[in-house]
Amino acid sequence: MTGLVEKLYETGDLADAELKSLIETGDESAADLLKKRADEVRRREYGDKVFLRGLIEISSYCKNDCLYCGIRRSNKDADRYRLTHEDIINCCENGYELGFRTFVMQGGEDSYFTDEVMCPIISEIREKYPDCAITLSLGERSYESYKKMKEAGADRYLLRHEAASDELYQKLHPEEMSLANRKECLFTLKKLGYQVGAGFMVGAPYQTTEHLIADLRFLQELSPQMIGIGPFVPHHNTQFAAEKGGTLGLTLRLLGILRLMFPKILLPATTALGTISPIGRELGLQTGCNVVMPNLSPVRVRKKYDLYDNKICTGEEAAECRGCLQRRIESVGFKVAAERGDAIDFKQGESK
Ligand code: SAH
Question: How many CB atoms lie within 10 A of CB 243?
Fold first, then answer.
């Protein structure tokens, strides 16, 4: 098994059957070597820097109905909120003072946030903080909408593809959603010049190793700047309440594999990873991750952005979150980078 890790390290790819063995292995020496090689590649490309992204969860209203998600529209018990223009600007002010140079506005697909509402928010942040990157994560929108928001000043867009196999995608989403549309959005975003983040959940219900291989192959085709993966964590008000969540071991194996397949990728150690293990994010950082996304949302709404059960970091002020993550990053030998942290292979104006 360690031979496969070396082959992946040297060539950046493996055949499907080899990937399958590596994804499924319980071999500890392979896991250790994967961690070591992933760390080596990440240090070669990005040194010991960890980039911070200040996450502002702008709305828990969602017109979508993804079966795994706690804020899906059919969860009648969800506590809904949306931030105002002023709330969002205040979060950025707070974040800027704390040293953040990327703001991520994420939310459910809330029809309130039309382009007419979003664009003035984006341009105000663009004007006030010319040295910051603006990232959006607002789900599927039209070409025109993505274009207007880009022109207003957005730089990056996070849209996990969720599952690159039609069959699995359909099992996790309501009938009216389609993988084809999700993919179309991602290619559109790239064409418009956004730095793009895709990704998927690890250990989602019905997910097999073959589905994970399909995810890796799709990522090779898309070639995004960032890949966000985290374990699936059940939410008590969904039909997947009684399902098992994704495991730490499998998530770490996939993070290591991603770093070796995509040496220059921005790879976050996600909140979901920190939720399933108290040292999940630290282990992620040691296995090739180089991004963390501290929460900048006002504390009064934190618990309401309730994607899955036991989500961490819902009680602290932004400054505490920032401090806590800085300590965690330094505890495993890395440094917080006070910069925008663009992907090293991304050139402005490039499109593919
Ligand atoms: N509406 C936006 C943001 C979605 S929330 C969009 O469509 O992109 C961000 C991510 O949280 C999702 O892409 C999904 O992969 C993840 N997520 C949702 N429910 C989850 C759960 N139960 N466990 C783990 N991750 C979950």
Answer: 16
**Euclidean distance between CA atoms 54 and 268, whole angstroms:** 12
Q: Is the CB of residue 308 below 6 angstroms from any atom belonging to ligand 1?
A: yes
SS3 268: strand
Strand, helix or coil for residue 202 = strand
Q: Ligand 1, atom 24: nearest CA belongs to which residue?
A: 232
For residue 106 and ligand 1, the question of a CB distance below 6 A is answered with: yes
The total of other beta-carbon atoms located within 10 Å of residue 295's CB is 25
* Alpha-carbon gap, residue 33 to 210, rounded angstroms: 23
Phi/psi of residue 189, nearest 5 degrees: -60, -40
Q: What is the pLDDT along the chain (352 residues), one digit of tens a residue?
A: 999 999 999 999 999 999 999 999 999 999 999 999 999 999 999 999 999 999 999 999 999 999 999 999 999 999 999 999 999 999 999 999 999 999 999 999 999 999 999 999 999 999 999 999 999 999 999 999 999 999 999 999 999 999 999 999 999 999 999 999 999 999 999 999 999 999 999 999 999 999 999 999 999 999 999 999 999 999 999 999 999 999 999 999 999 999 999 999 999 999 999 999 999 999 999 999 999 999 999 999 999 999 999 999 999 899 999 999 999 999 999 999 989 999 998 876 554 4
- Taking the model in full, what pTM does it have? 0.98
Going from the Cα of 307 to the center of ligand 1, the distance in angstroms, rounded, reads 7
**Does ligand 1 come within 6 angstroms of the Cβ of 232?**
yes
